[in-house]
């Protein structure tokens, strides 16, 4: 949850930096990483290989690679939204560097072949820069966090919203960005009759424009975010006029951001601007990378985990009569139904293939071996076969049974835009599962939260995000209280 930073005074309050400085820090970190990687390679190569020729003639190649790297980053607008929505991800910065190195290396080789170019120098330069670029991202995050804690960096926001539900939705969308310098410090509304108790999450409430202007006049608020989905042009003009005499950013969160998608952007067909509300999330090269990731890791998992799977199959067969595998229809890619495989963990006669009856803690239908394999998520391992078939991915939104219920409603009726999570293949694990939303979903609010995390994953997919989720899943297997 986004929480207000502690009040600060003096220099920090008067000269507090906003998110623009983070862009400068990221650019500087990239430059330092490239210089450090080059210096390390030029220092180590002669010591390791005994190469005694002058190395400075090769320095211009490092300069060209660095120039191409920054050109690629700027062309993709990677510095526009630092630390947010995957635009400056660890994977993205490494990809840009490797592409730049490949472009420059291929060009220089084709113009003037260099058989005596020291391979150790090239390998050391690429490895060193890659390492330092990774480390630089961690260092920037730590520096940003320290500046935030010291009150010298922060983006403090007041949400101007008419309804509690709308304000909560805006706060949740901001929270999904996971930006350490972002802080919602209050809720405002034009109505003077609304009571402060109605403000969500215990935030201060400012009723009426005069009270809001008085609060903004203190000079420690950076932005007023207007979150009124159905605002008209006349009302918008009134608000901007009322706030234009105060030094504060006034921004509008479009209805599409709150109701349709947590990621939207402007695309162009030629010179014609289009407002993209929904789009294919994983495409082109990303689709190929995702497919290779799934096949390689699933095949490796089937080989490495085969002893565990064979032993599990034997114990299931000995523990109770019935088949080893449980097959259930669930929603797959593009809402096409697929048959998901699991190790059977319940008594055959008590199983519910429709998924209407949720599994609860201490469920009497679960066998003794079923409790063990469910606790350790071993029951999910046959889904590696689904991955090899191309029906599922290792990481993605969890596939739900077609008749799964939340409260008294079906999942797809209880949560708006639920089916949009099927724009990618379902996964054996997912972001929602490692963010504390594994297991029973017994409330609409919890269901909505899970779907929001699914959307975030879909719209911010990267190979590094998948790897992080896989590692977090392995770690959480041993300590997840929701696994039963």
TrEMBL record:
This is Exopolysaccharide biosynthesis polyprenyl glycosylphosphotransferase. The chain crosses the membrane at residues 21-43, 55-72, 93-111, 117-135, 296-316. It is found in: Membrane. It is a multi-pass membrane protein. InterPro entries: Bact_transf (IPR003362), EPS_sugar_tfrase (IPR017475). GO terms for molecular function: phosphotransferase activity, for other substituted phosphate groups. Belongs to the bacterial sugar transferase family. It comes from the Bacteria. The keyword Zinc-finger does not apply. Keywords: Exopolysaccharide synthesis, Membrane, Transferase, Transmembrane, Transmembrane helix. It comes from Sphingomonas montanisoli. The keyword Transmembrane applies. One of its GO terms (biological process) is polysaccharide biosynthetic process. Residues 290-477 form the Bacterial sugar transferase domain. The lineage of its organism: Bacteria, Pseudomonadati, Pseudomonadota, Alphaproteobacteria, Sphingomonadales. Its main location: membrane. Gene3D superfamilies: NAD(P)-binding Rossmann-like Domain. One of its GO terms (cellular component) is membrane.
